[in-house]
Amino acid sequence: MRTIDKRIAPPAKLAASLVARAPTLTLAYDERCKSRLAATLDTGEAVALVMPRGTVLADADILVADDGALVRVVAAAETVVVVRARDTLALTRAAYHLGNRHTPVEIGADYLKLAADAVLEAMLSRLGVDVERATLPFHPEAGAYGGGHRHGHDATFAEDYALAQQVFAQRHGDEKEPAGNGGADHVHSHDHDHDHGHGEEDSCAHNHRHSHGH
């Protein structure tokens, strides 16, 4: 079995004929995040994908196998939710609430795109935006700090998260504090289930369970 272990970093320029002849490897977003993956080229050949940890492959990336052969990445079409709104403010609010849940989101000029999720779709509908399922390639935003998702063990995560929660609370006046205690005993506990897979199944898909205890 051949091993694919290198990505040709841009702005490397390859002859168009070489790229055209390269076999393709079609992967969904979650698969493109894995540093270790048993995969199958579109030709039917089984290969082992072994990339540096933290690599997120993108559509049209060119990879190199251990025998020097090229492989071109194709982003698979998958079930996604496309979010549109009648005005920029509504779309921005939707992006804020998705970000507060650490949801991977693809951001376009007039749309948001996320993996299909019935709970998030219901939330978005309550926000008044248009929600539609589609089958399309999915290219979420990369992390602003060069990695994808930031984790609780990052040095500044606690401060950033506390600030985000403060902003969230200030903008949700309809969530009243219990009468009689001025809000002093209002406690938020946040349990995060991360599919980190720091072994051979690294993944950038993260599931977050938020529980609010009062």
From TrEMBL:
One Gene Ontology molecular-function label: unfolded protein binding
Pfam families (alphabetical): UreE_C, UreE_N
InterPro entries: UreE, UreE_C_dom, UreE_N, UreE_N_sf
BP terms from Gene Ontology: protein folding; protein-containing complex assembly; urea metabolic process
UreE urease accessory N-terminal domain ranges (all copies): 7-71
Keywords in alphabetical order: Chaperone, Cytoplasm, Nickel
Record region (Disordered): 171-214
Domain of life according to the entry: Bacteria
GO cellular component: cytoplasm
Role description: Involved in urease metallocenter assembly. Binds nickel. Probably functions as a nickel donor during metallocenter assembly.
Similarity-based family: Belongs to the UreE family.
Protein name: Urease accessory protein UreE
